[in-house]
Amino acid sequence: MLPEEPLHEIQARADAAAASVTAAYARPLLRLPGTTLASVDNPRPRRVLPGPWHYWWQAHYVDALVDAALRGAPGAARQAHVLVRTIRLRNGLRATNWYFDDMAWLALAVHRLDTLVPVRPERNQDDDGGAAAAHGRQHPRMLAALGDALRSAHTLDFGGGLYWNRRRTFKNTPATAPAALHFARSGERERAQSLIDWLNTVLIDPGTGLYLDGVKAADGSSGETAVERAVYTYNQGPVLGALLELGGPANLSRAAELVGAISNELSHAGTAVLITHGTGDAGLFTGILCRYLALAALSPTLPEDRREQAAELVTATAQALWAGRTKRGQRTVFSPHPLEPADRHYPAGTGVGLSTQLSAWMILEAAARVRRGLS
C-alpha cells in the first residue's frame, strides 16, 4: 500500500482542483444573473451565443460539486443547485435530451444532490445558505422526467438493457450501467437487477472480467447481434456502483472480481495508476471510474483485500496527477495522462479542455473520500 498522506493535505488538493475548475470554466449563461455553466474550453473562443452543448459534462460537474459539499466545501451545494437549474435552461427548458446515457448521468447527479447530507456542516454557512440548500429536494420534476425517459429505453430488444440514444439501434454499458445504479438508488431494485443481469450475460468479456461497450443488430436481417468490444474505464465504474448498491452474494462477488479486473487490466504496468483515454469526452472516463472505486474502497461488504486494492488505485492515480500538475497563474492544471507532466500536454499559451480538469478534480475528490473514510 502507498504511504498515507495527511487528510488536510488530500482535501487541500481537492480544494485546489475545485477552485481551478471554477475559475477557469464556470460562467453565467448569456450573462444572466443567477445562472452558471461550465464552458468546455479555457480560454473560451469569443462568441455571442453559448458554445458547444456538452450536457453530460455538466452532469459530472454537478457530481463533483456534490463530492465537494460532502466534505464541507463552502457554497458547493448552492452552486450545484444553480447549475442544475441552468442545465435545464440551456437545454431548452427540458431535462431530457437525445442520449439516454447523458440522462442517466444527470439523474445520478441530481439524485445525489437532492439527497445530500454533508459529513459535517458547510463551513461559513451564513454567507450563502449552502447547508439549507443541501437538504432540500429541489428537483423532483426533473428526476421524474429523467426516470420516465430511462424506463422508456429499457426494452426486451437484444434481451434487455438500455438503448444509447433515441435512434434505438444500439444498447450499451454507458447507458445501462448508470441507469441501473440510478434505479437501485431510487427504489426500483428489480429493474436495476435486471439491467445488471443483462450486462453480466451479454457484455462481460470472459477473458478480462471487464464490461465491453455495447451490442447492436448485425448487418442483414438475420436478427443476430454484434458486440462492440471496446473497453473503457468509465464503463466499469457505474456497474461497480450498482453491484454494491444492490448487494447480495452474487452481486458482491462480481463486484470483488471487477475490482481485481480493473487493477489487472486498467492500470499502468508496475503501478496502481489507472490508464486514461485522452481528451474530449474520453477525458472524463477515469474520473468517473474513481468515484465508484472510492465507494468500493469504503464498502464493508467487500473483502478487505479488494477494498485495499480499490483504495490504492484511487490514491495512486490522484498522487500521480498531483505530482505532474503545473500552474497557470493562480490555477492548477492537470495532465490528461497521470504519469506524464501537464506541461507536456498543455504548454504555456495553449488551451485546456474542461473534461480532463474535471476528471482530475473528481479523482482528487475520490482520494479525499477514501482518506477520510479510512482515517
What would your notes on this structure say?
- There is one protein chain.
- This protein is mainly α.
- 54% of the residues lie in helices and 7% in strands.
- The protein has 14 helices and 9 strands.
- The strands form 4 sheets. The chain has a 3-stranded antiparallel beta sheet.
- Strand 5 (214-217) and strand 6 form a beta hairpin.
- Helix 8 (189-202) crosses helix 9 and helix 11 crosses helix 12.
- The longest helix is centred in the C-terminal third of the chain and has 21 residues, at 354-374.
- The relative contact order is 0.13.
- Mean pLDDT is 92; it is low at 120-135.
What's the short story on this structure?
The protein has 375 residues and is mainly α. The chain has helices at 7-25, 55-70, 76-90, 100-114, 130-135, 140-153, 173-185, 189-202, 233-246, 249-265, 285-297, 304-323, 342-345, 354-374; strands spanning 26-27, 37-38, 41-42, 170-172, 214-217, 225-228, 326-328, 331-333, 352-353.
Strand element count: 9
| N-to-C series of helices and strands | HEEEHHHHHEHHEEHHHHEEHEH
Percent helix among the residues? Answer: 40-55%
Structural class: mainly alpha
The Rg value, from CA coordinates, equals: 20 Å
What is the general shape? Answer: globular
The total count of helices amounts to 14
Q: N- to C-terminal separation? A: 15 Å
- How large a portion of the residues is in β-strands, by DSSP E? 5-15%
Strand arrangement, largest sheet?
4-5-6
Low-confidence stretches: 120-135
Biggest beta sheet attributes: 3 strands, antiparallel
Global mean pLDDT: 92
